[in-house]
Every structure is written in C-alpha cells, then in structure tokens.
From TrEMBL:
One Pfam family cited in the UniProt record for this chain: Cyclin
Name recorded for this polypeptide: Cyclin
CDD domains according to UniProt: CYCLIN_ScPCL7-like (cd20558)
A GO cellular component entry from the record: nucleus
Length: 216
C-alpha cells in the first residue's frame, strides 16, 4: 500500500438527528463518503462478525422452498468478498485512504451506499460484516465509478490504493455486478432517496449518537 503521508488527512462527520435534505447538488463528496461509512458501519452492527463458514451454516438451514432464485450462485460469489481474518485497517480509515488517493464524486459514494443497501438489507443476499465490508465497498465503488463517471482512476492505481491485486479487483467488480443481477440503475431520485432513508436508518440504528471520523 502507498504511504499515507505526513500531513493531516481529510475528515468527515455527521451528527445523527441533524436533518439531511435530499439535495445532491449541495452535498460535498466528503459528506457523501460519511453517509456511506456510517451506513455500512450500521449494517455491520446489525450483521455482527459473521464469517463465511457461519454464513454457509445459516444458508444450509434454509429449505428448498425458501431458497430464492440464484441463491447457490450468489453464495459462491459472496465467498470472494470474505477475508479469512478481519482487516487490520478500520473501515473508516480504509474509506478515507481511498478518498484521499482516488477521490470520487458525491454520486459514486451515494450509489455505492444504495447498492449495498439492496444486496444486504432489501434482497438479503449477503450479510455485511467486518470480514467482507472492505471488499464489498471496494467492488461497489469501482462499479459505481465506471457507471457514473466519464473519467476514473486507472485499474492499477485503484487496486494499489485498495490494497488488492488487479486481478482480484476485477473479480470483485464482476462479482458485485452479478450480486446486483446487473440491475445497476441509479438516478437523481434514487440517490436523493438514499440520503433521506439513510437519515431515518441512522437515527434508529445509532440512537442519536454523534459519530466523528478523522484520519490519523
């Protein structure tokens, strides 16, 4: 991984209970990154530290009648996002690192938040845990960047900053698209709704506790 440098890094904060308007144009990228982090972190709190073996055990408890379409395929895809150990870098520091060396737009951060909402909370395809959050976010950001931005960072740079091999990043990108069933539609209304819905989820999940994220 590249060195983070000696100067102070970016920071972002978001206080639960402070109303968020669904106006994307007035939302800075660092604020959208805050939404992405706090959202994913709240889902981790719901899922707990579920390893891949535990995920499979829970899947095996489902009967064939309860099994949704593509469940077995998705279970195999999900495996690629699980690390054997919890990464040494926290999710907040990982996101700040990506933002510092591969800055992305407000839309990309919000779209990634929406994608993860779908596969984790709406369709319940994958539990977002400390074992897979970094890789899921990385794959989601790469997909959203290519979808929404005309210019984006090279595959080599993005993989280096993300701390994975280029081939692995390609795998994450492809697998993420399959988990989304290639339904990658995003528009202004969806992204605005993500801001509004996030505020509601944040208030419920974090009980009005202020969270501050700051790079070391």
């Amino acid at each position: 991984m590249a060195e983070t440098g000696k100067g102070p890094g970016p920071c972002f904060e978001l206080a639960p209970g402070v109303p968020l308007e669904g106006d994307i144009s007035s939302l800075a990228p660092i604020e959208a990154l805050s939404i992405l982090y706090l959202h994913v972190n709240s889902i981790i709190g719901i899922s707990g530290d579920v390893s891949y073996s535990e995920f499979l055990r829970r899947q095996s408890l489902e009967t064939s009648d309860q099994e949704r379409p593509n469940a077995r395929r998705d279970a195999a895809l999900v495996r690629n996002f699980f690390s054997r150990q919890i990464p040494g870098i926290s999710l907040k520091d990982y996101l700040l690192r990506l933002h510092r060396y591969c800055p992305m737009s407000t839309g990309v951060y919000l779209a990634t938040s929406w994608f993860i909402t779908r596969i984790a909370l709406v369709e319940k395809i994958v539990p977002v845990t400390a074992y897979n959050a970094h890789r899921l976010v990385l794959g989601g950001l790469r997909v959203a960047t290519k979808l929404l931005e005309d210019l984006h960072h090279s595959h080599e740079r993005f993989s280096k900053v993300g701390g994975v091999a280029e081939a692995q990043l390609t795998r994450f990108e492809i697998d993420f698209c399959y988990l989304m069933d290639f339904d990658l539609k995003v528009n202004y209304e969806i992204l605005s709704q993500e801001i509004t819905m996030f505020q509601e989820r944040l208030d419920d999940a974090l009980s009005s506790r202020q969270m501050v994220v700051q790079a070391p």
